[in-house]
Amino acid sequence: MTFTSTVQSNGSFHGLPTFPDHDGKTYSAIVAGANGIFGHYMVKVLAQSPQRWKHIYALSRRSPMITPSEGSTVKHIAVDFLASGPDEIARILKQNNVQADYVFFASYVQIPPKKGEGLWSDADEMTRQNKSSSRPEQNIRVCTLVRPSHPEEEDDPRVLIAPNFYYQQEDLLWDYARETGSQWSVTRPGFIVGTVKDAAMNITYPLAVYAAIQ
Question: Do residues 48 and 55 touch, judged by C-beta distance below 8 A?
Fold first, then answer.
């Protein structure tokens, strides 16, 4: 069985998907962490195809940084993942009549690292906290940050030079999928930069590139 997939470019963004409308299907999506670097651009990309994504629920504490003309299908729902437990999040979603076909989960609870160690050094506690904050639905898309080889291959081993709770999240999703028949996928960029406030990576990597070429 073969199929053809067409991609498009939009300004400086390349390889964006196109959604043929011949099948007549429309979908709804939840984007958790809609103001983060990944979540912000996910909302924008989905909103550019209203013929495919009829409802986009942007979950974050503050309204997403998009204009009404950019996101006529976007509905912001104020959710604080740091302060709200699963029951409270479920109540808010039910109150707003949220029914979604896909979930793009780009939110997590950051706990204090172990003394003198890296940001994600307590991977076990990070996993425990974030597991209690989310309940996967049928179609999950997860973004993880790793330090991959280049070019990266699908069967590359995990990078285990430091604790990384993303891997434990993947294991949880594998177990959940086997138990429920759900589907999920993961993207593994080495890093993401973008026009989002309060993201340390926005300045870290440009400084590193600048230092490397001096």
Answer: no
